[in-house]
Amino acid sequence: MKQLLLQYMTRLTSLSEGEQQAILDEILVEEYSKGTVLLRQGEVPGKCYFVLRGCVRQHSVDVAGRDITSNFYTEEQAIAIFNAHKQEASSEYSLTCLENCVLVVGALDTEQDMYARHTQLELMTRRMIEENFGQVQAEFAAFIAASPEDRLKALLHRRPGLISRVPQHQLASYLGMTPESLSRIKKRLEREHAQPGL
């Protein structure tokens, strides 16, 4: 499983094999069962994660009591709640494992110490965040301008495996539509796909 991290280190840093191995030896990899809550809305985040295997849902309960899905994290995606800049450090989101997961776990309180000992690790982390942030910005801009059907099409193009991995009501929430609308759109797209040219 740590092989994935090794690929990132090779691509995003110029660390020697020995330095890479030293970092891999320090990194904590944990397994979590489906349904495990990694962080509850209102708690102060103390950890960040990198998904080696599985799917983690980011969600929150709004003032009306609705459970809103804002993201799904799957293989090779980093999970971090950036709120250190806020006076109130508690998380606005919960993080829940939708599948059995294997995650790299980083403790936020020891992060700076690790960066001090492995300066290129900080560079790698920053580059990963920059890549992810650029992607999120582009996806958010497209999401706002898109119709519900176009949102689903974009998701099927970008993350085709996700639709079969997560419950439909959570997927509908993520796409900003009702489960009934999602079902109708999926059926229409399936009919169009089955009858090209019509």
User: What is the CATH topology of the largest domain?
Assistant: Jelly Rolls
* Number of domain units: 2
Helix content: 40-55%
CATH architecture of the largest domain: Sandwich
The largest sheet is: 4 strands, antiparallel
Approximate shape: globular
- Terminal Cα span: 46 Å
Query: What's the CATH superfamily of the largest domain, by name?
Result: Jelly Rolls
Helix-strand makeup class: alpha+beta
Can you put this structure into words, describing what you see?
A hairpin with a 5-residue loop joins strand 4 and strand 5. The strands form two sheets. A four-stranded antiparallel β-sheet has the order 1-8-3-6. A four-stranded antiparallel β-sheet has the order 2-7-4-5. Helix 3 crosses helix 4 and helix 6 crosses helix 7. 45% of the residues lie in helices and 21% in strands. With 198 residues, the chain is an alpha+beta fold. The protein has two domains: 144 residues, Jelly Rolls (Sandwich), CATH 2.60.120; 53 residues.
Which descriptors would you attach to this protein?
198 residues; Jelly Rolls; 8 strands; 2 domains; alpha+beta; 7 helices; four-stranded antiparallel sheet
In short:
The chain is built from 7 helices and 8 strands.
Furnish the topology, listing elements before pairings.
Layout: H1 2-12, H2 17-26, E1 28-32, E2 37-39, E3 47-53, E4 56-61, E5 67-73, E6 78-79, E7 94-97, E8 101-107, H3 111-117, H4 119-145, H5 148-158, H6 168-175, H7 179-194
Antiparallel strand pairs: 1-8, 2-7, 3-6, 3-8, 4-5, 4-7
Helix pairs in contact: 3-4, 6-7
Domain Cyclic nucleotide-binding: 11-57
Pfam family, one: cNMP_binding
Protein name: Cyclic nucleotide-binding protein
